[in-house]
Amino acid sequence: MVSVAMATTSEKQNNTNPPNGDEAEDSSASNAYVDDVEAEANANFHQLFTGQSSVDAVVEMLSRYKNSLAQRENLIFECMIANLFVEYRFFPKYPERQLKIVSILFGSIIKHQLISSHRLKMALRQVLDPLRKPADSKMFLFGSIALEQFVNRSAELHQQLSDLRTTHPELVTVIDRISSNNSEP
């Protein structure tokens, strides 16, 4: 997966001010640290997509890392979340198995409140917009599977979802249908 950490690294490399000895050492160490964080984030995704790790295990790890006192773990959390948002545009190209995995992960991140505010709004939009696509499209599949993960939070997410009632009433119907299917014994 692509990482915002790479952008940070390239910005540092494009700095026009030549660093003094200490700054060069700090920059080199910082780049290695960023590369290490990105490598670990990518390794976590690799384990998930190859079946070496489950979505539940990754969500639990992300929850720990988000709340960790260790800066490195916070950075891995941020890198993984950022990668999901960056990677979103490539989801239509994912093989179906990997798309289902990332759909469950994406929805679970919302369900377990691992993101909030602006990121939550963006994530909801990235889940709900595909539900306007044809039902046989990969993105509709992504949206419906992701939504199934957090549909039990629909009352709690009322404010974010309320815009849909006026702009996309058909999505509200889909959400209600999925919600009622999930509430059946």
Automatic annotation (TrEMBL):
Domain (CCR4-NOT transcription complex subunit 1 TTP binding) spans: 12-180
Q: Which domain of life is it from?
A: Eukaryota
Q: Which InterPro entries match?
A: CNOT1_TTP_bind, CNOT1_TTP_bind_sf, Not1
Pfam name, any one: CNOT1_TTP_bind
GO terms for MF: molecular adaptor activity
Task: State the GO CC annotations.
Answer: CCR4-NOT core complex; P-body
Where does the record place Polar residues bias? Answer: 1-19
* Name the record gives this protein: CCR4-NOT transcription complex subunit 1 TTP binding domain-containing protein
